[in-house]
Structure formats: C-alpha cells, structure tokens
Specification:
101 residues, alpha+beta, OB fold (Dihydrolipoamide Acetyltransferase, E2P), 2 helices, 24% helix, 23% strand, rod-shaped
Length: 101
Amino acid sequence: MKFLKKASTRPRSAKRGRPASQKPSTSAASAPAPRGDKNALKKIESVKKQHGSLIFICEMGDGSKKRFSRAEAFSRWPSQVFKFCEETILGLLEEGNSLSP
C-alpha cells in the first residue's frame, strides 16, 4: 500500500532572514594574480638579429627570461618596444654610429 502525502492547506510564507550569500568562485579568472606574474613584462633586456628577424630578450615579472619575436613583442607591449627601440637608436646616434643601410 502506498502512502500519500496530504496537501497542506496553509499557504506557504516567504522565508525571512538573511539573504543567501553567494559562494566564492573557484574559477581561475576570479583567483587573485600571484606576485610576479609570469606573463607581465618587467623589462626588455636586449634585441638580437637571428635568421633575418629581430628577437627581443625580455625579463618577465617572475624573474625568468623569455625570447619573443618582433611581431609578438609589438603586439603584447607596443609602448615598451617603441621606447626600447628609441633609446637604443638614440644611444647609437650619440656614439657617432650612422644608421644608413
């Protein structure tokens, strides 16, 4: 024999009290960035010509050194790359080097 629940004749009342708090998100996007972000550029140390292309050697936020192609460096950090190139070229000109091809 099955037992049936008797329907309540009382209307449901809204619960009162503190609103439910949201659970903290555990996604990587909401996690705080660690100190020394490995993708953050600390400084451009040097530039080299390799197989006809420019390669930028950069110190990253976590202290590691990475090599980036000219295109990738310009797309990630355009203002820092321009500043580095400007300082390098001005330094060469002050030393008396010519920049003609």
